[in-house]
Amino acid sequence: MLATVGLVAVGMAATIWWGPMLEGQGAWTLPHDLWGAMAAASRLLHLNLAGLYTEPTRLVTFPGGVVILVPVVAVIEAAGLSLQVPGTQLPQPGAWLLAGPYEIVISAVALFAADAIAERMGVTRPRRALLAAASAVALWSVSVRWGHPEDAVAVGLLLYGILALSDSRAGRSAWLVGAAVAVQPLVLLALPIVLVVIEPRRLAGYLARAAAPGAVLLGAAALANWQATFDAVTSQPNYPTVNHPTAWTSLVPHLGDGTVAAGPARVVAILAACGCALVVSRRWRQARHPARWSPETLGGVLWWVAVALALRSVFEPVMTAYYLWPVLAVALITASRSWPHLVATSLAAAALTGVSQIPWQSPWTWWAPMIAGLALTLFLARVPAPGAATSVGGAEAAPSQGGRGARFTG
């Protein structure tokens, strides 16, 4: 809660006072991406489903990312404030005074989920305090800087889903993961890792529940406007001249108007995540037992989830700084079991969050260093199990104390 309050205070001060002072201008320094999502939320509020994926929303994710903004948009419209995109004609939009705190607070679900998992793993209160502070610093990029609360909400729901699964609550886990996918499908990268620790007889029911929220929301939008929904969700256009091109930019379809299709490359990342799941599936057979996971099992699953989430950045044709955040958020949790790992990972995450805001566009001066930074962060976050023997892959399976399930390191 302290980290959330601090992030709201610093975020609002930075956008309203500090940013304009540093840039020497009167306009507030706001996350412009948020306004397109709020335009879509306004259309949803007025039941205009056909307009969700048409200009000026620029929506490419599932409709759940819009649903989470409907409450604040309803308040903004009731207050008579404008949802016009900030610019020369509207340099200080009053809507931000409501939308800013709201989107930062809902983004903080990721902070609460991280703390809940750390508490479940037996992390001490001082280390949880550092985890909250470091996580808030990293969350600044996705919430305050870029205005994409859907990424944070989705990762937070995913983390709560993994926490529920660790307590043998597969049904609750499936609904939470399904809600996460409906908000932002980037969490699909983590799904193969989650599935390998579920008993085979429960897989069909788990997948059905996890698919339901996203299918309902996307189906409703598709029925209202099939062509716009299909084009946006499958192609997922991005802008290499505005954001950061990567080594794969020239290999993906170009859509015109300076955009490329990011959707096909994201399928490659999902396939690579399935490969990661196959690599570790045999190690995790004991975790499928309906007992409560040990802290080592939970930490190992989370570390591989972070690896899977990192695959998005590895194969993405066009990058934006906040794409790095999900990996940092999960890696910090896995590192929290050890002071040295947590301190080192916190420093790496803070440095990567800051450096990623540099506007360089060459793949070899921006994208390649970012991938190297993610690899370093994952290396620092990997905490071996106490007493585990050093071996290839660093894994050792052993029965845990007190009948609490399998103990291992990822």
Bin the helical content: 55-70%
Largest sheet: 3 strands, antiparallel
Number of strands: 7
Total individual domains: 1
* H-E order: HHHHHHHHHHHHEEEEHHEHHHEE
- Globally, the shape reads globular
| Overall SS class | mainly alpha
Distance between the termini: 30 Å
How many individual helices?
A: 17
Indicate the proportion of strand residues: under 5%
Spans where pLDDT lies below 50 across 5 or more residues: 388-410
**Global Rg:** 21 Å
Summarize model confidence as the mean pLDDT: 91
Strand order of the largest sheet: 1-4-3
Short account of what is shown:
The chain has 17 helices and seven strands. By secondary structure, it is mainly alpha-helical.
Notable characteristics:
410 residues, mainly alpha, three-stranded antiparallel beta sheet, two-stranded antiparallel sheet, 4% strand, globular
Structure description:
It contains 17 helices and 7 strands. The chain has 410 residues and is mainly alpha-helical. The strands form 3 sheets. A 3-stranded antiparallel β-sheet has the order 1-4-3. A two-stranded antiparallel sheet has the order 2-5. Strand 6 and strand 7 form a beta hairpin. Helix 5 (96-107) runs parallel beside helix 8 and helix 13 (263-280) runs antiparallel to helix 14 (295-315).
